Amino acid sequence: xxxxxxxxxxxxDVRGVVPDQWDEALxxxxxxxxxxxxxxxxxxxxxxxxxxSPALSGxxxxxxxxxxxxxxMIGLCSTDQLYYASGSLDLPGAMFTASHNPAQYNxxxxxxxxxxxxxxDTGLAEIRTLVEKWSVTGAPQPTATPGTITARDTxxxxxxxxxxxxxxxxxxxLKVVVDxxxxxxxxxxxxxxxxxxxxxxxxxxxxxxxxPNHEANPLDPKNILDLQARVLAEGADLGLAFDGDADRxxxxxxxxxxxxxxxxxxxxxxxxxxxxxxxxxxxxxLITSLSVPEVVRENGGTPVRTRVGHSFIKAEMAAHGAIFxxxxxxxxxxxxxxxxDTGMLAALHVLAALGGQEEPLSALVAQYDRYAGSGEINxxxxxQPARTAEVRAAFAxxxxxxxxxxxxxxxxxxxxxxxxRASNTExxxxxxxxxxxxxxxxxxxxxxxxxxxxxxTSGAPAVAGTSTTGPGRAAPQPPQR
Length: 481
Fold this sequence. Notes:
It comes from Streptomyces brevispora. This protein is α/β, with parallel strands linked by helices. The chain has 4 domains: 14-153, Alpha-D-Glucose-1,6-Bisphosphate, Chain A, domain 3, CATH 3.40.120.10; 157-258, Alpha-D-Glucose-1,6-Bisphosphate, Chain A, domain 3; 261-366, 3-Layer(aba) Sandwich (Alpha-D-Glucose-1,6-Bisphosphate, Chain A, domain 3), CATH 3.40.120; 372-474, Alpha-D-phosphohexomutase, C-terminal domain (TATA-Binding Protein). The protein contains 14 helices and 24 strands. It has helices spanning 24-38, 53-66, 79-89, 120-137, 155-164, 185-192, 225-234, 261-275, 291-298, 310-320, 343-355, 361-366, 384-396, 438-453; strands spanning 14-17, 42-47, 70-76, 93-96, 105-112, 116-117, 149-151, 174-179, 198-203, 238-242, 249-252, 258-259, 281-285, 302-306, 324-326, 332-334, 372-373, 377-380, 402-404, 409-412, 417-422, 428-435, 468-470, 473-474. The strands form 5 sheets. Strands 1, 2, 3, 4, 5, 6 and 7 form a 7-stranded mixed beta sheet that branches. Helix 8 (261-275) runs parallel beside helix 9 (291-298) and helix 13 (384-396) crosses helix 14. The longest helix is centred in the N-terminal third of the chain and has 18 residues, at 120-137. It is globular, with a radius of gyration of 23 Å.
């Protein structure tokens, strides 16, 4: 019977429950298929701290070697450390991780040489087809000359390379709390921060893929509560939280308040533009804050808006020769890091910016985080297209309102905007709203949610592109996107 990989092979990676959905035998076939599709004669493999990662990555290596590829095993690493190895060694790579997913999950993030992404349209579909075929016929016979499997440590070189991309030599002493969530940040942070004037306060640095303290998913506010409390207790200058494979970094200021990833995107964009003589293109997805393209233009750069998802960001990075890209989900992409994402490099930029002046982080980021945002609000709906059409119809004919469908539905008034996107995997609609002030943001948010959820948010105030709130008094006007 052909293996059913429909729930295992996602848009950008392989991810599922072990051993229910996949195991070492299947990992070995993925390794062989990866070599077949990439035509690689050598690859590099790394893995995270999950209990199943060493065995799965070892099986993948055996499959790859059986097809004639020499395999370099870099062992425990963050995902961006694997991208560093792929870029610096110019080899296709495979990272065994399920990122922020619970302990029973594992997965594979694959890339071509130079950390170029492998997704459904760039090889992953072909890999899936081969594995499904071999589940019936068996894998092809090993080549006459199988490849070798050798070990190599890249952590020190990875740290040195990151530090060559941002000047932290003159920063003032900083007290920094880092919550690694028992993930790979506990492996990389001590080496990267080793020579910095930083008083490091570690939290949950013990590598433990069962996540005994909290899920390694800082996007969920409950998972940064410990960090926020510790920053306040320590009187720290800032806090950093990494996800399980440490490719994303979230920032908490000295007040224990989370800093919007859009604010970090704008801050890093300004610094990367300065580093490139005030010229360059910066990519941002369509639900980052309006402050991002504003800051880019103010610093001499050209902003380019794209769909949500790392494959779209990376494609636009390559197409435009962009110097930097950022997403609302705290993925940060750098031209000088092979267009790949690295939360650690973004964190170093934050340290350099904060340590290069005397203001607290909250004051520093205020110039980059300018508007009131709702965050992403998920609503469970039975009919995503019908609800979206209802929202479109309610707003489209208002004076001064425009719509586009680059990714879901974006509705823009002269001074406010929102985006409504359907989940690809769940019966959810995701709403993001931004306005110049909190009152207007809430009004737009509540009207949209009333339409999305029906009676779920009754009594929400109506908002129109040029509405008035009284005789001669214009409604608060949020920013134009």
